[in-house]
Each structure stands twice: as C-alpha cells, then as structure tokens.
Amino acid sequence: MEEWNFPPNYNKDYFPDPNSPYWFRDRETMDPEKRDELIVARIRDVMAYAYDHSPFYQRKWDEAGIKAKDIRTLADFEEVPVVTKQELRDSQAKNPPFGDYLCCPESDIHHIHGTSGTTGRPTAFGISRRDWDTIANNHARIMWGMGLRPGDTVFVAAILSLYMGSWGALIGAERLGCKAFPFGAGAPGMTARAVTWLGMMKPAGLYSTPSYALRLAEVAREEGVDPKEFGIKVLFFSGEPGGSIPSIRDKIQDIYGAKVVDCGTMAELTPWMHASGSADTEGMLLWQDIVYTEVADPNTNRRVPYGEQGTPIYTHLERTSQPMIRMVSGDLTHWVMEDNPCGRTYPRLPKGIYGRIDDMFQIRGENVYPSAIAEVLEGLAGYGGEHRIIISRGGSMDELAVQAEFDQETANKGPDAVKAMGERVEAELSRVLGVRARVVMVEPDTFPRTDFKAQRVVDDRDLYQSLNQKRGG
Ligand code: 8LQ
What CATH superfamily is the domain 1-356? Predict the structure, then answer.
C-alpha cells in the first residue's frame, strides 16, 4: 500500500512512474467500498488526535456524547456535530489568534494565512511545517492528475496575500518539481504585465480564478496578443464557479486552446484542491482519501444519495494543525458515483459547486443561482463579458433584473442588433432558468473587471425600480 498514514509523513523525493496517470495508483483507483472502510479508520485516528489536542473538539463532542472509538461506519460519523465558520470565528475571538482548535503548539506554526473577506472578523490559519509539507504533497499529486509534470512552468496569476488559492497552487507546483512562477495579481497594470510574462515564459500551467482568466484574455487582445500564443496546456481554476460550467469552460478552453480543470473548496480545507477534475475527467472528483466529503441535506447534515443535491461537509484526514472535522460549507452541489474516464474511483461533482446557498434567490418559486445566469450569458454570441444581477428583495417575492454588456461587434451593427440581443438574453434566461428577468443591455466595458472572484449580485430595490422604468416595464 502506498503511503496513507495519520499523521502523514510523505517522502519528499517520491515520484510516480513517469508513464502513470496516477500519483498513488492504489489510493486513487481502489474499490470505493474498501476505501470507505479505510476512511472510517482514518476518521477515528483524526478524531482521537483532535480530541486529545483541542479543547474546541473536546467541548463539542463531550456535549454530543460522541467518542472517536464509537465511529464504526460512515453513517455513525453523520452523528458528529458539524463545525461552522462562525464557531471558528468565535473560537479565535476567545482564544486569539488561532482558536482553541489549534492542535499543535504555536511554536510549530510555519505559515500564517487568513481569509480574504472584507467584512466581519477574519479567520487566521496557523499551518504547521508538517501540514505545509502534507498540503504540498497532496496538491502535487492532484496536479499530476491534471497532467502537469516536473519541469513544467506553472504561472500563479492570483493574489499572493490573503488568499490560500495562490499559495496552495504555488507549493503544489514546487513539490511537483515544476518551475513555479508566483506572479500574483491585483496591482495596477499587473494584467498587462502578465501578458508580457506569459509570452516570455510560455507556461504549461496557469492558475487563477475563471473570471480572471477571462479578464486576462481581454487584456491580451487589447495588447494585440492571441492568448493561444501563451502555449498553456492546463488552466486550473478555483475560488468561484466557472470551471465546471460548460459555456464558461468551453469558452475559456477555446480562447486559450488549453484544458480547463475545476478545483477548490474552502481555504479552511486546504489542501483545497481535494475537489478537483483531472486530465480526463470533467467536473470535480472528490479525492476522499485526502479530505472526506459528504454531500448532505442542509437541514439534517446527513448524506443524500448519489444523484441528489446537498451541501458539502468536509473532514480533513491528513491535517494536524487546524483539522476541520465535519466543516459545513454552506455551498450547494450535486454528486454522482459513476465510472470516471480517468479511472479514479472517486465520487464526482459533475457541475462543480454551484455557489453558496445564501447567494441563491427565489424568483416566482424558482431557485436561481448567480452562476446559472453567467452560464446563460456566456453561451450567447454578442455578450460583452460582464453583467450585474439586480435583485429587489423587497416585497413578498424577489424580482430580478440583469444588466448585460453587449460586445463591440454588436455595437457596430447598431441599435436594432442591440435590441435583438436583449430579447435573446431575456428569452434564454426565461427558457433555461424558468424565470422572467428584466434585461437591460449596456455598452461594452461598462463594468469593472475583477482580478479575483466576481461579485455580480446587487441587492437593491431602488436600482431595480429605476431599471424597470428605464425599460418601460
Ligand atoms: N468556491 C471556491 N472554489 C470554488 C469552485 N471551484 N467552484 C465553485 N465555488 C467555489 C482557495 C481556494 O480557491 C478555495 C477558496 O476559494 O476558498 P475561500 O476563499 O475560503 O472561498 C470559499 C468559497 O468559494 C466556497 O465556499 C465556494 O462558495 C467558493
């Protein structure tokens, strides 16, 4: 059996056979029932460890009357109370700075990172040297599965400060023996410089958010560069929906002439690549032997059957500094268990993660995700690349308006073409989402582009009213 211990202690020099599509063939392709048995054993190890090292988990599980040794099946594990983001914040407020779920001495902390949000108390991540190495090994393994190889250049085009995404991609690339280029993002003029550097370095892999990959392509074209000239083979994305949304994924694959791989769950769950597609499998595989993921009913926190929708609940099987045990994400997805083209025997999220349940709104009884609107727009010729979703959550029902940019080509054709485009958008939204939206077409480049995660939803009754009047509706 390949290395699979708790705590892990990966051999830093290990590489698989260069011809193998797998880093750890056994772990990745084993009979899923056998894997589940081993996961249960690993869960017991991690729980016993967390109980011994953290007042947070002691309190939580004592209150629930749960002991690690009682977990004999995955169904038993569903009795374990979930951990919420709020509990982590509270724990850090009471026990600053890392909270009483830190399971290693503070002196073992090798890296400090934090959440990227701008509201509320941020969460601090204290990551031990051991965990840092484990994360690097996990990510190298998953990036191998994406088709990246030692010697490849990997260009990290995401903010290298309060964002675990960039750091996770960087240390995975380093462990994989790649030429890692921590380029970053977010400074003025940096996207144009990225275009220059990409042209010089011709990386095999590029990491960013999907929104930023689209932005980068726009800027490249402004600079007279065809993004295909970068010679990228794999674009791996995390941070927001997009990499598993066919219209967006296909558009980006087309623009760059490269393969798109969707990955990423939550910063707290670093190694966050544990949900990731592979070179041959679309959507996201759940690499269950690294982080055990349950897709659960958000009301009961119990697993839903394959084929159904639920919220992911995550459990670290290899972390020792701040292990998350049943951390509830608040996202929505659906999972399936099928034969995967790459031969890995993991469950899969065929459409990735749709977004946060909180971001969902209801229009005349239909649940709508912002990502579904992006999906429709990106699939339409003549779309200018950005939009805003305006919801008025005032009365008994939410109302929806969409401001969508048309592209320069449509602009050149004149007002009739723009009007026809608006009608097409409205018809498509209504056909695909089952809801009627007020659509207002706006000039190309009306909205700022992001170098991080797109923020497109505006919750505003007054703006909704004014758009409604503008459209005469
Ligand atoms: N989120 C993250 N990755 C997503 C994806 N591939 N598809 C859909 N939604 C996704 C550091 C990694 O990028 C993970 C990350 O972004 O962590 P954060 O910053 O803590 O944000 C977590 C949230 O981003 C998730 O709950 C998803 O809603 C979204």
Answer: ANL, N-terminal domain (3.40.50.12780)
